Amino acid sequence: MDWWASFKRLVRLQYLRLLRLKASTHSIAMGLAVGVFVGCLPVIPFQTIIAVVMAFIFRGSKVAAALGTWVSNPVNMIPFYTMLYYVGSLVMPVTAYFDPHHLELKAMLHQGWEIVLVMFTGGILIGVPASFATYILTFRSVNAYRQRRMIKLLKQYEQRREANNADMDESQKQS
After folding, report:
1. Dihedral (C-alpha) 45, 48, 50, 56: value to the nearest 10 degrees?
2. Gap between the Cα atoms of 97 and 133, Å rounded
């Protein structure tokens, strides 16, 4: 199996794991939206912790919040944080230099508060609309999945009930 097929399989597994969580649709959508929002903030070593705490405050799914933080992951970290910097610098005047090789919060604080504020501004400007879109898409996806699953289970129940009724009719005829 090549790497692309295994990557697609992993993504599908996480998607199904998210849809099958034993929580309300709102809770799953809220958790994922909170995770995406926190994932857009430049708080690398603390993303999951902050997302789970915020999910607890907003009564969202903690598992979904932890999954949502992977919007910024090790593969796309440098371009993602560069985008946060440039979006933030459009709103705030910046004199600090962005070094994409030092992306941890501690390293950015060492570079100066100005760069941290610019990146937080960019993260909020990207994170708020992304979290709203995530909430709506997740809510609709989970609802649609659960409706399809319920219809499938009802059909299976009906088939079993009809088979049992046919068996009972057959046994009554033999008596």
Report:
1. -170
2. 31
Rounded Cα distance, 118 and 6, in Å: 37
Q: Which residue has the tokens 């090790």?
A: 74
Q: What is the pLDDT along the chain (175 residues), one digit of tens a residue?
A: 688 888 888 888 887 887 788 889 999 999 999 999 999 998 878 899 999 999 999 999 999 999 999 888 878 888 888 898 889 989 988 777 777 777 777 777 777 788 888 889 999 999 999 999 999 999 999 999 999 999 999 999 999 888 888 777 777 777 6
**What is the C-alpha to C-alpha distance for residues 103 and 71, in angstroms, rounded to an integer?**
15
Residue 117, exposed/middle/buried by CB under 10 A (0-12, 13-18, 19+)? middle
Give the residue extent of every domain in the chain. 3-159
Pairwise CA distance, residues 154 & 34, whole Å: 34
Instruction: Give yes or no for a contact between 32 and 18, defined as CB atoms under 8 angstroms apart.
Output: yes
pTM equals 0.81
Query: Do you know the residue count of the chain?
Result: 175
Give the number of other CB atoms < 10 A from CB of residue 81: 20
Largest CA distance in the chain: 93
Alpha carbon 101 to its chain's center: 26
